[in-house]
């Protein structure tokens, strides 16, 4: 994880000179024009960069780019005809593979507005499905098809990722919040919805063909791909182990893109989620702008209609009442009444309720009310009666709880009917078990077992099967929950 030297010239002090030289070499590489000699570089920089650019600067820049690995130099052995030719060694310079990669990166960064937006192309995904169907049906020539699959899959992944990154970028997000976006709203929504519907129709076919990929002869594919790599003569050839690692990684990537695992969703699911969220966001913005436009519409006709009402008023008092009903009161005082009203719902009309009583007291200095101590007497008979009632309720509650345990074991999947009060108690014990277990462990096990001290005179061991679902019949409906068993321990 050290410094990447080929990218050093992008942040060096003389970055303008280095970038001019490297762009020239990269342009010649794209045009297949070969290397440049030192005098040619000097003349080029003097003509296109600065007239004062001299031999000291060209030697310094070229040597720095060679040291960083962007250029490579080679001396041509010729017979010198003069002392000057002997001193000035005839070097030629050519861009390296590392320099090409850095310049391609710079070119993409400078043109990212037009190059990296991507697209949601249903044709590209359908083409990938066609290649996969042909690949699983082929028995002999696998290398050519796999190269086409590799390229099509890379294009689908890059295009979709770039487009989702583009439409979720802060720049596009800020543009969506302007009224000018309403012109493009229909195109956005139709584009995203058409893509979702078409890809969802292909999803089942993808899952079937990717499952078939696990049954292919992988050794045969690896051997053919390695043989194809050997057909291109290179000094540093690719070994079979490297080809095997790449192909196995690509097979895994294909499966993760469309199917995923239990630990992480597939890229297809993420793509559908992001696209659906964008549609929801666009429709929300459309509703917002619609409300804004409606709010700022001209109310001239409304005011003219109100003026006709006021014109028909018989006297000023009636006009005042009409004004208060339409526009509200200009001057009002509000009092808070602490006494509870007879309202049974927050939607009940206030005018239909009995008025509350507000007790006004003196204000200012000396208005503080005096508090007098009052005596009271203990009613032991009343206390004893209330205590007996409370203990009787506890006994009935304990009997209800004991009814559900069979040999100190409660299996919710075998409960025939569960009353609402006991259900609240059991759910509280389950929540306590989950919270206690999560504070000390990670919720990754299939079965969670935790001891809980209850408000009754026993403890329970709560076992929760996270991936098994059951339905418990209650007196007021059905409850869907994980499979839970409780084992009682008497104190």
From TrEMBL:
Protein name, per record: TIGR02677 family protein
Domain of life: Bacteria
Pfam families: DUF2397
